[in-house]
Here is the input.
Amino acid sequence: TIQTVHGREILDSRGNPTVEVDVTLADGSKGRAGVPSGASTGIREAIELRDGDKQRYGGKGVLKAVENVNTTIADALKGMDGADQAAIDNKMLELDGTENKSTLGANAILGVSMAVARAAAIAKGQPLYQYLGGADAHLLPAPCFNIINGGAHADNSVDFQEYMIVPVGAPTFRESLRMGAEVYHALKSILKQKGYNSNVGDEGGFAPNLKANIEAIEVILAGIEKAGLKPGDDVAIALDPATSELYQDDGSYLFYKSDNSKKSSTEMIEIWESWMNQFPIVSIEDGLGEQDWEGWQQMTTKLGSRVQLVGDDAFVTNPAIIKKAIADGVGNSTLVKVNQIGSVTETLAAISDSRAAGYTFMVSHRSGETPDDFIADLSVATASGQIKTGAPCRGERLAKYNQLLRIEEELGSKAKYAGKTAFSRPVT
Ligand code: PGA
Ligand code: ZN
Here is the structure.
């Protein structure tokens, strides 16, 4: 049973406050969790409670959320069974009483939810991935390394937010990490050679001032080859242009960081199609904006049988929105971010709904992170087959990849690396 729940304000990877929670059970088992935070957030995400007091951290303090953890939530959960995750999460939803967790804050609720799961796993003597996923959990995800950062994650001329490499041809997770790191370093030397800077953005990817959005893919392909690997067979490309950030009230997409041109939905779909025809792209996330549901339907009809179309801002890990997407033929894959919905139980529901509909799902970090590695275990627990948690650079990104190395080592011969299979599309 839960004995204490204690929250505190810590800083995340961008130097902004976030919530950390410690949960202690009566048998002495302790769980700790840190809450991530996005920059290009979806409009329908659960509410991250911030103090708004401009005298502290520019209004970004989380003392109210911490107080909610230490008073309302701590009082209500004391004595509850730590192993009953659903009852605990439901109790917090009830205390909050809103659709979007605006009373207590999704940051407060999620921190407690994850810390409870950790403490309960320890009490049961199980690693977290087995506690959440059962004794048979053994699938290591293909990592999507975000090695060029643009959009809201970097001060550069690139409109699209994330250019990722996926070592689909690696035999093991360990080898996929090596391939990812080797391409990363090869890319760095290519950027330098071309006279670009190699400073990194929020997720550890390089943030050069490229001449065009497409050039990011060209330099990445050169990096893959320089590392002695084959584009496509060994290392595929995944994109998250995060186009909700580009969407304008008139229904167009504004390339505000490069040439200020405007594109219609149809033109955006044409860009993706032409890129898919030229490059080994296995996944496109938020290829259209969260506000452009009809565009999403057209994009899915046109490209959905050929490529993974992931809803991030479009779905916000929300089971109700995912159900609507499935019914409306929007996308074919769900991005899973624990803090978009704000509890472990609802995250697992979003995953099982996606899976039941034949949607793939990618477990994801946020651009603001802590060293918390919960999502590494979550990806193995749910056999997601794919994870994105930044470049192989910056401690808060490596925390997740390194945890996957440990899990693979612990599983030994039982471990299986998802690789290509994670992205195979049903033949239609
Ligand atoms: P965010 O970006 O964490 O800043 O929202 C990540 C993403 O868009 O996938
Ligand atoms: Zn995204």
Remarks:
- DSSP finds 13 helices and 15 strands in the chain.
